[in-house]
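Quick one - first record:
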Amino acid sequence: MKISRLNWKKLPIETEETSDLSKNLPIQIIISLIKTSSYSNIKKRNIFIIVDYLYGKVFGSSNISDALNITTRAAQEYIKIMRELDIIEPVRGQGKGKYKFK
């Protein structure tokens, strides 16, 4: 099931408005890193949705797959992108392939 609190018409990439989560400093840093990255606007939008859906939770590719309604393989590509952006880190003791936002 795809769930997001972000307004699809006014994503942070397109406007200065962000969800209520942006009041936290770490979220502001994450948003800034995403906005200034060289990835396509579609990828950036999807990463914003992932952040909005999974921030503060331990997640894996299946959670991203559910959030974006994409395949697990495509979700793994988003994990790779977010690791390159240095906005997620692996979690120990939760099983292989589990991450959380920094």
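second record:
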Amino acid sequence: MTDSDYELPTEVIRLITDERLRQLTKWGDQRHSPTIWLPILGEEFGELCQAILHEMWERDDAVPFDELVQVVAVGVAWIEDHLRKRDEAERNQRQLKEQLEQMEQLEIGAQKDSP
């Protein structure tokens, strides 16, 4: 591997991060169900396909690179949303478990106090 091979992942992450920041600025923090994320991702993928077909028609070998980065960034946004929801669900489960344990302790204490 060459030094430039090690720089590629860093550049890829930078490109995706820059696009995610652009998306956050434009759209804010997006929270959707998979039934909404899929059409959003599909729309971006469709734009990439359209751009590729246009480039082929024009006999231009240029890859619509910006569209590709946007597709990946939307996928990353979907993953971010999923992980946030997972973390919130786990946090809610812990809180519910703690509340149930407290209620059980109160019930045990009340039973001890009753004649």
